[in-house]
Structures are given as C-alpha cells and as structure tokens.
Amino acid sequence: MQAFRKAVEAGDMDAVEALLAEDVVFTSPVVFKPYPGKAITAAILRAVSQVFEDFRYERELTGSDGRDHALVFRARVGDRELTGCDFLRVNEEGLIDEFTVMVRPLSGAQALAEAMGARFDRIAEDARARSAQPDVSP
Fold first, then answer.
1. What is the 3-state secondary structure (H, E, C) of 12-33?
2. Under a CB-based contact definition with an 8 Å cutoff, are residues 48 and 123 in contact?
3. Angle, vertex CA 21, rays to CA 59 and CA 18, nearest 5
4. Whole-prediction pTM value?
5. Pairwise CA distance, residues 132 & 15, whole Å
6. Distance between CA atoms of 79 and 114, rounded to whole angstroms?
7. What is the mean pLDDT of residues 79-104?
C-alpha cells in the first residue's frame, strides 16, 4: 500500500482515485450504510482530505496474504485531535476494493461527522460528475 500512502501524503487525490477498484465499497466511521462505487468513494476521500488537518500516517500493517492493510493515522478536525485507521483490502489486480475507516475518540468522530455532513451535498454532486465522466483509459 505504499503507492496509496504516498499519494495520500502528497495530497495527490487523482493518484488515490486511480488505486480504487470500480466496485470499491467505502465504510465510513460515522455513517451506518456503506458507500459502493469508485465515484462516491473518491468524492468522499477528496472531501476528507480537505477536512483533516495535520494528517499523518504513523504505522502500516500488512496481512500475511498481502491483500489486507491497515494504516494508522493521526489528524485534527478543528480543535479535535483524532486517531484512526484505514483498513484496506486489494483485489487480484492490486486495486482497493474494500475501504473501511475507524476513528476515535468520540469527540473527534463527532467533529468529523459534522464537517463531512456540511459538505455532503458537494460530495454527492462530485460523485455524480465523476460517474458521468467517460472512461479515457489507454
């Protein structure tokens, strides 16, 4: 997951999006229902990259089969510090097909939920625009 980590740390959201499978499922730390699909996942990740301040990965763990990864991070949302983990699973092509985020403490999760909720109309609009884009892959 070095490519993903480097892309996130560089703020290269196009590179992050390129690492997502079309059928990726994103599970939020603050919403019960998972979000299926590359367009909505990319839109959420773009928004959260604007919400998180002082974001940094601290540790990376990889499962024995090389398909499961956990990236432990720290960030701030406003005046709330939080710790979290991105749990990623890659498919046979090496693309992320499962993306689950967990955060703590509750006050940090609440600040994240509030900040993302305020952006959700724009996130949904971004996802619709991304899903309408024609495939320009070589």
1. CHHHHHHCEEEEEEEECCCCCC
2. no
3. 75
4. 0.90
5. 19
6. 13
7. 97
